Structures are given as C-alpha cells and as structure tokens.
Amino acid sequence: MTMARCRRAVLLGVAATGAALVAAESGPLPFKSSPVPGGVVVLAIAGQAAAPKATYHGEPVLVRRSARGWQAVVGIPLSAKVGQDAIEVAGHAVSFTIKPKRYPEQRIRLKDQRLVTPNPEDEARIAREQALMAPAWKAWPEGLVPSLRFHQPTPGGLTSSFGLRRVFNGEPRAPHAGLDIKAPAGQAVRAPAAGVVVLTGDFFFSGNAVFLAHGEGVVSLFAHLSKVTVKQGQVVKAGDLLGSVGMTGRATGPHLHWSLSLNNARVDPRLFL
Known about the structure:
Elements: H1 19-22, E1 40-45, E2 54-56, E3 59-60, E4 62-66, E5 69-75, E6 83-89, E7 92-98, E8 105-108, H2 120-137, E9 158-160, E10 165-168, E11 171-172, E12 179-182, E13 188-190, E14 195-203, E15 207-215, E16 218-225, E17 227-228, E18 235-236, E19 241-244, E20 255-262, E21 265-267
Parallel strand pairs: 8-10
Antiparallel strand pairs: 1-5, 2-3, 2-6, 4-5, 6-7, 9-12, 10-11, 12-20, 13-19, 14-15, 14-18, 15-16, 16-20, 17-19, 20-21
C-alpha cells in the first residue's frame, strides 16, 4: 500500500444512527482528574441549563452532564507548560493548574537510519501525511456520544508507556504519544469503544493505521498494523475487528501502538482502561 492509496478525505460529519453509538454514559467518570502534561483534567461548570460550549486553546472540549450540572473533560498535551491554564466557557475563563510530571527515557536502536533522519523525499511524504492526519485528530462526528470506558484493543503487555522521552540512535525525538502493546503478528486488533473510521492509510512512521473517532473530539489511532480490515466511513461497535498486529512503519518488532486524543491533545490511554 502506498500513500497514493490512502484515503483522500476525512469524514468529519457522520450522523450516528445505531442506539449503541448514541447512548451517553451517566454517573461518575471512570477516572480521576489528572492535571499533568498528557493527562486529563475534569472541571465543573455551574449555572448552565443546556450543555455549555467550552474550548481549550481554540479546540472544542468534551462536555457532559454531572450530578451537579456539567463538567468539561479536557485533554492536556504533552507539550503543556506547568502552571496556570484555563478553558473558555461562554466568554469566561475556568482556570486550573497543570502539575509537573516526569516521564522516563527510552533509548532505541534502529537499523534503518532513514527512520531516524528521513531524507528530503521522505520529509515531503511526511508533510503530506501530517496534512492528511490533522483533520482526523479533530474529527467530531455529528450525534456521536463517546464512551469514556475503553477496553484494551489487543491482549498483551505494555512495552513502551505513554510519555516516554525517546532517543533513536542517540538522537532525541518527540515523546511517545501513545501506548505500545506487545503482541504477536497477526493478532486481532479490536475497537476499544464504538466509533466511526475517519481515516486509514499507510504512513511513513505509523505504517498501516486506522483513525477511529469515538465522538466529541475523542479519537484513537491504531498503528503498525499488518492488515487493515475496515474502511473510511464505517461505523463500528466496541469489540469489532479493525485489523491485525504488525510491524509496519517505524517499528522494531510486532506490536500495536494506540494513541488516544481529546480536543486534539494526545493523552495517556491507560487513564481510560
């Protein structure tokens, strides 16, 4: 599969027709607020009859009803600075404090130096792919309410945790913005929650990959697959087959890379398991 065969458009507006896709969760969230880079902060919003509109640095934020009104569930990017920050609700700031978190370092040796320092042709391909992926990370399918309770998409141990400061062949690179699950090649990869497939393709770093939008800015990426078994626009339920474990793209062995994003910020998937 080549970039020319990647999907050329990203599905941004899909009406959810299945009851399983529109059933909102009630009651408490399945995780606690974690206001650190790569974490999720939960903020109370009082005094609103209807669901308020909230944004974080210009990105729309997931808002859901709570026992006392409404709450914003905000993904904090790994690049966030420690200290005061805020979301905006109806023109007013709702402040919170980002606390420090130190992630460990991982050193990886790759045989193919191009995967560490891409050549000009590779750089052009990566730029095209990033432009294709950008709207997928922002996908907000109409009428699709996300579950915030996820299942691990494939069985296996965790080999590279979220947030690792990675060094490839002695050269520092971006922190690991996902969770790696060690699994044999060909093992089934299944949807951790219901959603809509908004992009599939073969990418320089991610290899064969699937972007799955769960609703309201919650998006999963499944990377390094040996095979993709879904198509763009396909609606899936939790547990449906997405593809198979592989080692395509930048990978040193068979495994699944799973990234989870809220409001276009990659966060630790373990918070949702």
